[in-house]
Design goal:
7-stranded mixed β-sheet; 1 helix; 11 strands; mainly beta; 4% helix
């Protein structure tokens, strides 16, 4: 079992930056991909980014390429999402997740989800 707790979400102005953190506990996650999803009210949950176990491979959704980066610190069992040049359309609850493979993230079906952290971007 894995527990994930996100933090760092808040309300900011367009153009601002935020760094979200996700701390994992329970079973180790150092051997598994981790990623971030987001969900705005009334919309489907969508994949934002994925990072491989050793951080050698990443994936980014087209709508965040060039603005967001994902990283991890396995010694701290933590994954991060650095968000720059935030736009109002980035407003959503952001969820951290762990899964056995990238495929699970593409299917929006990771093994574990965090509770989410709210990011609000105003114009």
């Amino acid at each position: 079992q894995v527990q994930l707790v996100e933090s760092g979400g808040r309300s900011v102005q367009a153009g601002a930056s935020l760094r979200l953190s996700c701390a994992a506990s329970g079973d180790t996650v150092s051997n598994y991909p981790m990623g971030w999803f987001r969900q705005a009210p009334g919309k489907e949950r969508e994949l934002v980014a994925i990072i491989s176990a050793r951080a050698g491979t990443t994936y980014f959704a087209n709508f965040v390429k060039g603005r967001f980066t994902i990283s991890r610190d396995n010694a701290k069992n933590t994954v991060y999402l650095q968000m720059n040049s935030l736009k109002p359309e980035d407003t959503a609850v952001y969820y951290c997740a762990v899964g056995p493979a990238f495929t699970n993230f593409y299917r929006v079906a990771p093994d574990y989800w965090g509770q989410g952290t709210q990011v609000t971007v105003s114009s």
